[in-house]
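Notes, Module 5: Reading structure tokens.

Key idea: the token line is not a picture. It is a compressed description, and you learn to read it the same way you learned to read a sequence, by spotting repeated patterns. We will look at two proteins. The first is printed below with its tokens.
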Amino acid sequence: MIYFMSILNGEYVKIGYTSQPVDKRKGALQTGNPYEIDVMFSVEGTLKEEKEIHKSLNCAFERVKVFNNPVNEWYPGENSMIRAFINNIKTQGLEYAVKALDNVVKWKKRVKKEEIFTIRRLEKALRSRGLSQKQAKTIISQKKEELMFNACSKKMEGIADEMVRYQSQVGQSRNLDI
């Protein structure tokens, strides 16, 4: 059984495998843990599949380079990649969710069309489309969660152009000089 547990109201999410009942595993994890652990859900799966999940998550985190890579099996629960992964498991199944993560790792290094990249490449793409460094960083910061969700959903094509349009709309509607 592959389980998903959280602490601090979802701030951190643990993904793990157990051959025992999930509540028994929760009890073992709770021992010595100062935070109340909540079981989010579980799905049928093997230890091999759980290891594949961690490998895919670690590679995706490393590829995107937006957040620090987790050093254990507790992931930042508010991270859009984790949220999209969990949503994909619930709606599409474990196999689909892992494939979506693996797509992040397969991105090409080009910035222009089908891919994105690291934040630095996105900033470079935005600056090449006429935004200042400050504007690019502001827009990236405002849209980071959506970027991460799109990255996991493979909707990245044309994102730099879309973000330039967004910046124009926000600047006009708020009359801000960002």
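Here is the second protein, with the sequence above and the tokens below, as before.
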Amino acid sequence: MGLSFLDLLKREKTILLDGGMWRLLQAKGLGDDPPELWNLTHPDRVTDVHRAYVEAGSRVVYTNSLGGNRLRLAQMGLADRLAEVNWAAVKAARAAAGGAVFVAGDISTTGAMLEPYGDLSRREAVEIYAEQARVLAEAGVGLFVVETMLDLAEACAAVEGIQSVSALPIVCTLSFGPGGRTMMGDTPEKAVRELTALGVAAVGANCSGGAREMLPVIQAMAGVAGIPLVAKPNAGIPELIGTDTVFPDSPAEMAEGTGRLAEAGAVLVGGCCGSTPDHLRAIRARLAEMKE
């Protein structure tokens, strides 16, 4: 690919990311298996999900490695297969991207709390993230995404871990609750300032309810941001209907909400939990209308 991700950020007003992974793998028979395990056992089905997003217009796809760090893999019984799992995640995404779409190495929380609230030291967290990032970089990602972070301190540790092993661009998004703060009380403005100081390429929010709930977060970030913003909301706030978790926003509803996020300043937009290629196609059409 001749264009770098940083060049793409400078050139495009809006860039379409991908959507959710878990729901689509469930439709393919995932059941109770960890999604990351399917990089090894069903790589063709993981590639099929990535390909569906590429065909929907996504310019960036996230590897199926959200839980691919040492601590999360240990909970799945996969601690000794970290390199295999992450390498296979990149291979599956690259098979769909075909050199025309950027593959982002997806990294998320360890599931442990940093000191003094938990037992995980900052130094250990940095090492854990560096370990995963090293494999993803060697496997050939074009950038990194740190996402669904509930603690700004851990997000910063993840960024530092990545930077210790790679010079690739980093996009970082946190998850914000109904009060517009992360689980640890971090504000959107604080997140932007601290992550910008670390040198990330873009910062923003993912998950965080639906597009309507995320809008005040992006607006707050836009007031202080000097780098591109990211908005990757859920397809609405999930509802439990019987034994099924249902995400209520239709593709048209999500597209309208995501359009408002773009108007508020988000450059990189996509979907998180509950979103599908149909949602992404609708978002793509809405972004095209906004450019006219």
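Summary for the second protein:
- Strands lie at 15-16, 60-62, 102-107, 143-149, 170-174, 202-207, 229-233, 239-241, 244-246, 266-269.
- The first strand starts at residue 15 and ends at 16.
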